[in-house]
Amino acid sequence: MILVISTCSQNLSENEFVRPIENLLLKNSFDFKTKHYSEISDASGYDKIIICGTALKDFEYLKDMNKFSWIKKYEGKLLGICSGVQIIATIFGMPLKEESQIGTRKVNTLIANPLMEGKFNAYFLSSKQPILGKEVVPLTEDESVIKFKGKEFYGCMFHPEVLNSEIIIKFCNL
Amino acid sequence: MRVGVLFSGGKDSCLALSKAMKEHKVVCLITIVSKNSESFMFHTPNICITKIQAEAMGIPLVSFPTEGKKENELEDLKKAIVEAKEKYGIEGIVTGSVRSTYQSSRIEKICKELDLWCFNPLWLIDEIEELNEVKDSGIRAIVSGVFAFPLEKELLGKPINEEFIKKMIALKEKWQINPAGEGGEIETTVLDAPFFKSKIELIDTSIEYENYSGTFIINKARLVKK
After folding, report:
1. Which of these, A150, B116, B145, B208, has the minimum number of CB atoms within 10 Å of its CB?
2. A16 with B123: Cβ contact below 8 A
3. ipTM of the complex
4. Could you say which of B119, B149, B172 is where a domain stops?
5. Do the chains contact at A11 and B23, CB–CB below 8 Å?
6. CB contact under 8 A, B117 and A10
């Protein structure tokens, strides 16, 4: 079972950042449940988790980092998208820097990995980036996709649901 | 939150508006009237009807003209949003963007510069799901423009109903036409919706159509009691 986690503080944003991922999982017949991060204390019952992004001006989740302490103990596969990456990075002690990325640009795969390959266009919508530490390996030249060492945790700073839905499908099939 | 809705008068902006109304206070509509028929951002047939639609809803309209030159029109959009912020105290913008990263990234950048929330409640919605949602939510829209093969003249002025949706599904299967017209193949105009206090009656219309490209022109319309 896959858990889809909303990081949106506004219901209207869920149409934009959560529903497209739910629709993708439905279309591809994956079993999933969706919860808001505030409802989760233990995620051990799920073998895969996707932490979705949220609006550019939404940072409520950063005030609630205590709600994500389960991430450190989680042993399944985790994909963080945009704010999801910021959350996982913060939990592992990496600071965030102010840096806006809005729009479409090319991303080039650096290391062979199960989620993506080659060069592709990706849609970015973020205003904070993690300052990467030794805990992660960049999977792309621009460090927009990272893997956490020793774990099946991935972080994707662009929104794969927009132009690269195959990344989400591949993650769900891991 | 006080929000302004980017409003073209078509089904997408009306559906986005109806979703915004359930969560936030819609304090104004913002319309950009482009003189450039090739505009990527704003061209819509019958854009002038937004004035009547706003009146029907009882929501103030910020209408801003633009010559429609590529980057100038973004500056004009920014000016319109600034006006909405100053006049109506908006804290966020709602758009009817469905799939255009060109359009949405530009609006997101403007909102960031102006410290505003940006909501795109129709983002990546399935086209058929969207058409059904328009129909089921009581939004009464008609086809006001067709701009692709094999869209026929007969579609102009037709309502977005069950029959239209079936036809668009068939055209999608045969010709890969985007059934909701997201690629600019189809434009629509809304004449009534549950949140309209009065509805729009068309008094004088005409059709211009040539080589699978045409417009249903509303020359004269008025508001009538529902």
Report:
1. A150
2. yes
3. 0.95
4. B119
5. yes
6. yes
User: What 3-state DSSP class applies to B143?
Assistant: strand
- Shared domain for B65 and B96, answered yes or no, is yes
Of residues A12, A19, A20, nearest to B24 (C-beta): A12
B21 and B102 assigned to the same domain? yes
Q: Which of B101, B109, B121 sits opposite A12 (nearest CB)?
A: B121
**C-beta separation of B156 from B188 below 8 A:** no
Walk along chain B (226 residues) and give the pLDDT tens digit of each residue: 999 999 999 999 999 999 999 999 999 999 988 876 665 555 567 888 999 999 999 999 999 888 877 668 889 999 999 999 999 999 999 999 999 999 899 999 999 999 999 999 999 999 999 999 999 999 999 999 998 888 889 999 999 999 999 998 998 888 888 777 777 789 999 999 999 999 999 999 999 999 988 999 999 999 999 8
Task: Say if A100 is an interface residue toward chain B (CB within 8 Å).
Answer: yes
Are residues B205 and B173 located together in one domain of the fold? yes
Residues 6+ apart with CB under 8 A from A32: A1, A2, A3, A4, A22, A25
Same-domain status, B73 and B159? no
Contact predicate A46/A17, CB 8 Å:
no
CA distance B118 to chain A (A): 7
Provide the CB-side half-sphere exposure for B131 (13 A, CA).
23
Number of domains comprising chain B: 2
Q: Which residues of A touch B4 (CB under 8 A)?
A: none
Q: Do A10 and B121 touch (CB under 8 A)?
A: no
Domain that holds residue A54: 2-172
Same domain flag for B105 and B149: no
Angle (nearest 5°) at CA A63 between A19 and A66: 90
Among candidate residues B10, B224, B195, the one with its CA nearest the CA of residue B96: B10
User: Do B63 and B152 lie in a common domain?
Assistant: no
Co-location of B171 and B220 in the same domain: yes
pTM: 0.94
Instruction: List all residues of chain B from 153 to 172 with a beta carbon under 8 Å from chain A.
Output: none
Residue in B closest to A102 by C-alpha: B105
The number of domains in chain A is: 1
Cα dihedral sign for B156, B157, B161, B163?
negative
Which residues, including other chains, have CB under 8 Å from residue A63's CB and lie 6 or more apart? none
The most distant pair of C-alpha atoms in chain B lies apart, rounded to whole Å, by 49
Q: A62 burial class (0-12, 13-18, 19+ CB within 10 angstroms)? A: middle
